[in-house]
Write a structure and sequence with these properties.
The chain is α/β, with parallel strands linked by helices. The chain has eight helices and ten strands. Helix 2 runs parallel beside helix 3 (about 95-105), helix 3 runs parallel beside helix 4 (about 120-125) and helix 6 (about 160-170) runs parallel beside helix 7. The longest helix is centred in the C-terminal third of the chain and has 18 residues, at about 205-225. It is globular. The chain starts with about 30 loop residues before the first strand and ends in a 12-residue tail after the last helix. About 35% of the residues are buried.
Length: about 240
């Protein structure tokens, strides 16, 4: 009975935080350096990173990777970070250099984009001692060649086709580590887990969306409780 009870402490100031969908806990997770990772938040927003209960963060963004961005995220994060190091717009030796820098900054792993060549992938895998995560967006991807080049984990991001692609990889490579996008609903997340994903990436609401919700709550409260001598109470 005691094993089923999980004590929890939130604090008054941190009770307003983002929570990943509970159904993600059903996946097996991936153990990296002794830490078991099941839920991975997809963001580079440090305010979200500091206020979410995910096991890790995947920090990938649509610009040329810059060490200063990696450094800022690593400084702010209190959970493991998987850093994007290029492979799309950025290619070749620069990807290797950025991956090397990310490792020294404390990243748990590096993420390369789908267009990354196997030559660049092999060079990254040779240079660093943390997992190299390869993004997969199409069923045309040669998974065996990626593994030979040094891929440690696959990050499947194929929109509605993600469960199908995860299942195809899992059937051919039963023991390979797979991270996958779970989609917007519990049903889509569970379908991805059942297809064989070990860990799920979750896209949180943006900072702007969260702010709008809070501001609408404040407006509704003050409309019903107009202050007489200025604000004397703030709703939770």
């Amino acid at each position: 009975m005691a094993a089923d009870f999980i004590p929890e402490f939130q604090g008054n100031l941190r009770k307003h935080c983002l929570r990943v969908p509970e159904c993600i806990r059903r996946c097996s997770g991936i153990k990296i350096f002794g830490k078991r990772i099941k839920s991975i938040v997809f963001t580079t927003d440090v305010s979200i990173i500091r206020n979410v209960n995910a096991d890790a963060v995947i920090a990938v963004y649509p610009f040329t990777p810059q060490p200063i961005i990696t450094q800022a995220i690593m400084l702010a994060a209190d959970i493991p970070v998987f850093c994007g190091v290029g492979g799309g717009i950025t290619q070749g030796k620069r990807v290797v250099n950025i991956a090397h820098h990310a490792e020294h900054q404390g990243a748990m792993g590096v993420v390369v984009n789908a267009p990354t060549s196997n030559e660049t992938l092999a060079a990254v895998a040779e240079e660093i001692d943390i997992p190299v995560i390869v993004t997969v967006v199409s069923e045309q991807e040669d998974i065996a060649a990626r593994l030979r080049a040094g891929a440690s984990i696959f990050n499947v991001s194929a929109s509605a086709k993600t469960p199908m692609l995860v299942r195809r990889i899992r059937e051919e490579f039963p023991e390979v580590a797979i991270i996958a996008t779970g989609g917007p609903t519990d049903e889509s997340i569970l379908a991805t887990i059942e297809a064989g994903a070990n860990a799920i990436t979750w896209t949180p609401p943006t900072n702007g969306e969260q702010t709008r919700i809070i501001m609408n709550k404040y407006r509704a409260y003050w409309a019903e409780h107009p202050p007489v001598n200025g604000p004397d109470q703030v709703p939770d």
